[in-house]
Amino acid sequence: MAGIADFLDSLIGGFDLICFCLMIGGLFWGACILRPWRRQMDYSQEFLQKTVTLITQGGLYLVGAQIFKIILKVWLMTALLNQWPFPEFAETTQFIGGLVRTFFILALTIYCHSKLRHHLHSKAHWLAALALTAPMLISGAWLVHAAGRFEDQLYLMSLTVLHQIAAAIWIGSVFQLVMLWILRHQGKIPAVLWPQLLKEFSPYGIGAVVAILATGLPIAFKYINTWNGLFGTGYGNLLTVKFILLSMALGYAWLNRSAVTAYSFHGNDFELIKRVPYYIEAETFVLITLLFTAASLASQPPAIDIPNLTATWQEVLGTFKPQIPQTQSPTHSALIAGEAGRVAIVGKVPSIAATEWSNYNHNISGIFLTTMSLFAMLSYLRQLTVLTPVNKILKFTQYWPIGFVLLGIFLFFRSDAETWPLGPIGFWDSTFNNGEVLQHRIATLLVFTLGIMELRARLSKNASATLIYSFPVLCAFGGLILLTHSHVGFQPKSAFLIQVGHTAMGVFSLLLACGRWLELKLDNPGKQIAGFVSVASLFAIGLILMFYREPLY
Amino acid sequence: MKKIVLIGFAFILLIDSNLVSAHAVVTDHTLAFEQPKVNEPKKIELTFNSKVELGLSRVFLVSKGDKHTLLKISKGEKQGNVVVSIPPLSAGDYALLYKIFAADGHLTEDVIYFAVKP
User: Fold this and answer.
1) How many CB atoms sit inside 10 A of residue A166's CB?
2) What's the gap in Å between the CA of A4 and the closest CA on chain B?
């Protein structure tokens, strides 16, 4: 149970940041871009109401997240320390700071709901709401990573808060743009508002990104002091992922800006209507993942503190080194024999059989995914005119999602070696008496079901939207899990070398999700390019798994 | 779409983690240069990179067969220092298992290995 509490703790951090962006970013969007007091006629009451509702909802969920965080800490401490953590916990900065912040968020939310909502065109009310964010933002400084540091504490706390504000301004505005598009699509706002606000957001977004870098880089230089620290620690690895995700999001932002610029010159709104909304949706996927990665980063020890536990960049590269996949599994009895020594603390004996068992599982899964992605790529390529003569022969390639079904069956047999069908513990006994086995069973069922759903979505001409979009959304969630599921355990260097492959797969999962999403939404040629990028990402995940080698620990 | 997002969250909840996230780490400890002697009580100093909430932290001595014994801990002289009192021990391999609640709200669980030699 402690594991679940800990994992929820890292997830709630990402959720907290999303709500924070909705609220703070929404208020800046209203006060700096919309400025309703200057445009009494431009904005309908309904549009401004929706804007404030999004801000208020963000605030309410943020209050919930803050309270849930405290509950999770209590849960986690009770589970780990085997005792009720009060009254000691009540005296900690985390508890007091958490309650103070909750109070300020609640006050701001109540103000937005009871005052701002009724004075939507009032400059004084918008500015008052912005001013009310100050105590909430300042109180948040005592809850960040830097609060526990000994050196440059105030400097790092201030920079972190400024970094959060800059990120909220950008990401919160993107959330508002998604809502703006929905309203535009439903015909609830004048069509002209869409290009107009997109254009106004452009320089504002650039300013926010510059502020993100200006505040983020000094923090990075404080916490990472060597190249090995950047490439050879969990902290550096997640920071690198943040840069990659930021670059991806900026790529979409650049596409949007180009479309807005083209519209300003030619007045043709085709791209603004048929492409930009979907780029923004994909950008939202990336930004949400970025927020969860940022939350996960806060749970890593800074690279500067663990020079003796840092892997070299050569060791990191080594984890991706192409090698012959392990296609022979150690025997089940060899695996079971080594388990007692492997899990012991004193007298620990690393189990070669356990490492090889894991390598085999990863490598075979990689072979499944690589083969599936090759078939998937062929299914795209067969549409090319050059391949028309063999089009019919290659028709079978469209059934590539069946690979997920086979992978599900493989995982069912291999995930829990100590249980049925390979081990002595019975199916029902293991499924309902062991939380971890239950989770593996359901995850296996999900992979199996995902294969069937995607197969139906691709083959059926009347597939429902839920069926069609399930695959990219679940892949995005999968990527998010791989990126947030990073922990430092009893063997930090070994754990990191395992983590580095998983974070790379997380990035490719996100690419897979965004690619498939855009393939479903865009017109050609973007549709085909996105589809191909999607399956190429699946191929890359397959390769990482196929060459995976677990460190002996 | 809401349904898909709910499925996604369900998917997330199904995945467990077995280790506790770590921010506070031991950057130095006296065991690195001075191992305890047989049958001699010892005070070991652990230096963390972060402020530690002592009332919410525990250190266990782990001996052969993974037997856990809760140890007494107190605040050291410098910031981030935790002093652990080790009872007299016979020769053998041991470990210190610590569960630390840092001021930034993160709980850390980790192990330091040591040996008592005759």
Assistant:
1) 21
2) 5
Q: Which residue of A has its CA nearest to B1?
A: A466
Do the chains contact at B50 and A149, CB–CB below 8 Å?
yes
Distance CA B84, CA B47 (A): 11
- Whole-angstrom Cα Rg for chain B: 18
Which residue, among B21, B71, B78, B79, would best test binding to A if mutated, counting the most A CBs under 10 Å from its CB?
B21
Supply the ipTM of this predicted assembly. Answer: 0.78
pTM of the complete model: 0.88
Tokens of A339: 């388990």
Each residue's pLDDT tens digit in chain A (553 positions)?
A: 555 666 677 778 899 999 999 999 999 999 999 999 987 677 888 899 999 999 999 999 999 999 998 998 888 888 888 888 888 889 888 899 999 999 999 999 999 999 999 999 999 999 999 999 999 999 988 888 888 888 888 999 999 999 999 999 999 999 999 999 999 999 888 888 999 999 999 999 999 999 999 999 999 999 998 998 898 888 999 999 999 999 999 999 999 999 999 988 888 888 888 999 999 999 999 999 999 999 888 778 888 888 888 888 888 888 889 999 999 988 888 888 887 888 788 888 888 888 898 899 899 999 999 999 999 988 888 777 777 777 788 788 889 999 999 998 998 888 777 788 787 788 887 777 665 677 677 778 878 888 898 899 888 888 788 888 988 988 888 888 778 765 444 556 777 888 888 899 999 999 999 999 999 999 888 888 999 899 999 999 999 999 998 887 6
| Chain B nearest CA to A210, separation (Å) | 27
Residue A214 main-chain phi, psi, to 5 deg: -65, -30
Sign of CA dihedral A146, A147, A150, A154: positive
Residue written as tokens 């410098």?
B78
Find chain A residues with C-beta within 8 A of B51's C-beta: 148, 150
Q: Do A92 and B58 touch (CB under 8 A)?
A: no
